[in-house]
Amino acid sequence: MQPIIPFSNINWSEAIDSLNQKGFALFSDVVSPEVCHALIEMYDTPEAYRSVIDMKRYNFGLGEYKYFSYPLPAVIDQLRSGLYPYLALVANDWMRKLGIPVHYPETLNAFLELCHQKEQHRPTPLILKYEEGDFNTLHQDLYGEVYFPFQAVLFLTDSEKDYKGGEFVMTEQRPRMQSKAIVLRPTQGQMLVFTTNFRPVLGTKGYCRTAIRHGVSEVLAGQRYNVGIIFHDAK
Ligand SMILES: O=C(O)CCC(=O)C(=O)O
Ligand SMILES: [Fe+2]
């Protein structure tokens, strides 16, 4: 299972512009439909996962997701470690703009070492399965003191053919303002990179923190599967 995207071929200046202006960037043809099918099939292989979450039980919405165990499936591992160095450059620029004294190291391994120093050892990449009526409430995926400000979602199902509803939703909240909603409908093989916690937005008094939350609207019919790629390990 290989990603079909060579990271060095991506138009990074376009992607970085999108991250800076909108807080997210969409990449197409990241994996083939065959890789998507193989990941969906792996949903029923219990050995691949460290835990299974019934979203209703925790009031996270309705549906189920599973956290992968280490070692991660090769395709997820490659996407995570391949994306990290590019995103770390943007992450460091954001921290500088916001005056936050945090520096993200150049490689994913060095960043995971920082997680381990804070007792964050557990893998966070996950696969989510939504059926008719399922949804994911607006949230942030922070699992401890150390976090990476970007995460990715790999869309495994076809948003035209496989399901109805199930939009990817983000809200942005600037200090003392109402939230803005962003609704996206990426499809099979696409990957969305978005803000995990907050992003810098230039206001009249310089950059301010705009908090981002994400979730999934109700699936009205069919089945929707996604893989979430979070960079930090969890406590
Ligand atoms: O199913 C989705 O599109 C979103 C999943 C999610 O919340 C995540 O990957 O962090
Ligand atoms: Fe999430």
Automatic annotation (TrEMBL):
<feature type="domain" description="Fe2OG dioxygenase">
    <location>
        <begin position="121"/>
        <end position="234"/>
    </location>
</feature>
<comment type="similarity">
    <text>Belongs to the iron/ascorbate-dependent oxidoreductase family.</text>
</comment>
<dbReference type="GO" id="GO:0016491">
    <property type="term" value="F:oxidoreductase activity"/>
</dbReference>
<dbReference type="Pfam" id="PF09859">
    <property type="entry name" value="Oxygenase-NA"/>
</dbReference>
<protein>
    <submittedName>
        <fullName>Prolyl 4-hydroxylase subunit alpha</fullName>
    </submittedName>
</protein>
<dbReference type="InterPro" id="IPR005123">
    <property type="entry name" value="Oxoglu/Fe-dep_dioxygenase_dom"/>
</dbReference>
<dbReference type="InterPro" id="IPR018655">
    <property type="entry name" value="DUF2086"/>
</dbReference>
<keyword id="KW-0479">Metal-binding</keyword>
<keyword id="KW-0408">Iron</keyword>
<dbReference type="GO" id="GO:0046872">
    <property type="term" value="F:metal ion binding"/>
</dbReference>
<keyword id="KW-0560">Oxidoreductase</keyword>
